[in-house]
Amino acid sequence: MRRVSRRTFLGALGGAGLGAAGLGGLAGCGRLPERAGELLAGAAPLPEPFTVPLPIPEVARPVSPGRYEVTQRVAAVEILPGLRTEVWGYGGAFPGPTFELRRGTPVTITVRNELPVPTSTHLHGGVTPPDSDGYPTDLVVPAGHSSHHSHPGEVLHPVTKDYRYPVEQRAATLWYHDHRMDFTAPQVWRGLAGMALVRDDEEDALPLPGGERELPLMICDRSFDEDGSFRYPDGGHHGGAALDAEYLEGVEGDVILVNGAPWPVAEVSATRHRLRLLNASNARRYRLRLSPGGRFTQIGSDSGLLAAPVAHDELPISPGERYDVVVDFSAYPVGTAVTLVNTLADGPAGNVMRFVVTSRGRDDSAVPPVLSRPPDRPRPVATRTFDFRRTDDAWTINGLRYRPGAPLARPRLGTAEVWRLTGDFHHPVHVHLAHFQVLARNGRPPAATDAGWKDTVDVRPYEVVDVLARFDGHRGLYMLHCHNLEHEDMAMMADFEVI
Ligand SMILES: [Cu+2]
């Protein structure tokens, strides 16, 4: 079978599918939809919610101080009760192991690829040198894979690659995932994602809940075939086929997973718990609330602790974003079931997971009124606009399809710039290397949930979002892109070069 790139396919399509299924619908209704993808119905019976215990991914163990090895491999795991699902996992696990990193302690992670496809691993939120940043054409190629170059400038590493992370950055909730050119969406869908937590002295000095009361929660949606296998609308020909035109807006699954378990349940004591929320979905956005009521006390954003906590009743979270929050379960009587719900969906996807308050507990933790001293807002030296929209027959940035090695901007190391992000649909914009603050939405102050330093921001249809990005750490080629993974694969990426 001839290899057909997704972008070639989209070119051949002439945009007909997208116009009819997606943006036409948007223009036709008076209200802007909150949904950012097309629901892919599965065929497996949906499990009863809140019956599977919440799994906590294993913490990766170094093979020697500062050195890790992780093998990407195929594994069969039980996700839906009684069925086996083939996953492509870091360490054969989905999610992959959690990496516990320490500011100022560099690590090298050797990724070995035993999958049937090439991969590239991006540490999302990492301040990483360009040759370890998971550039989409910097590929780890499995043994026996035909090594023809399909993209100019492609770099192929046979079987393994050492990714070097200086970890010169503040404590934060990071994650890692596949970033292979044209195939990020199906490869992440099949399991290539995990979390990485950076810790530092500033955070250690705070009396935040920790240990078993600190829960990394990777939220994503998937659809399953009758036999338990993942369903994804590319004909199953991973590595060759294109996405069905119906799903060019993005693929939404009908099963919500947290840490790889469907609508799980966690027993908690009536104490404060720290929840590190990550939306690892391909396209689905969530608006998270607690039912029967309750508040999230946000302590951190994508790129680290806030200066001071912010209370929220609800959290909108788009693909790639993280919220570091504390929930005080002492607000509920023992025996209460507290459900984390998603008010953007009706039906099964309206639930995420459940906490059951099973006992009283001693609680020495606190959320202090001052959390950290984040870096001050620098003065910008330039303003640039990046427009995310469908142009003719592709998802584009400033009207351009992604071309590796052709940077759209050359910011100087150590400076900051205002980047104005606009678009025609929900585009969660992620910037590699550079962290940013949201300055304004449509010229007005940003939402309370935009607080702090971030690396991903939800740009909603026809919205103008101004962010102040600082370019620190490394010179070289990086990228910004839409984190709707189907858009990303469909050319909605651009390079920038830090000079
Ligand atoms: Cu997008």
From TrEMBL:
Cite the EC number: 1.16.3.4
The coiled-coil regions, if any, are none
Which CDD domains does the annotation name? Answer: CuRO_2_BOD_CotA_like (cd14448)
Provide the alphabetized UniProt keywords: Metal-binding, Oxidoreductase
Instruction: Tell me where in this chain the Plastocyanin-like domain is found.
Output: 77-202, 385-498
Give me the reactions it catalyses: 4 Cu(+) + O2 + 4 H(+) = 4 Cu(2+) + 2 H2O
The UniProt entry, under Gene3D superfamilies, shows: Cupredoxins - blue copper proteins
- State the family named in the UniProt similarity comment for this chain: Belongs to the multicopper oxidase family.
Q: Sorted alphabetically, which PANTHER family does this protein's record hold?
A: BILIRUBIN OXIDASE (PTHR48267:SF1), CUPREDOXIN SUPERFAMILY PROTEIN (PTHR48267)
The subunit structure is: Monomer.
User: What's the protein name?
Assistant: Multicopper oxidase CueO
Natural source organism: Nonomuraea antimicrobica
